[in-house]
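Milestone M4 deliverable, item 7.
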Amino acid sequence: MIIERTQTEIIFRLPKNVNIDDLQDLTDLFEYKEITKISKATQKDVDSLVKEIKKGRWEKTKQLLN
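Output delivered:
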């Protein structure tokens, strides 16, 4: 593996036999870190949003089951 830094980017060079799914997981992690570093959301905000989403999902599921 080779890691190269240029003025505008960082380049990872990996052998072609590296598992592509592992690379996608790593890419997702980097993307998550980039997005969340500018977020002003608190853990309380996140918990509230998750609760709201789960409630809406359960209501839709109940309607589908009836």
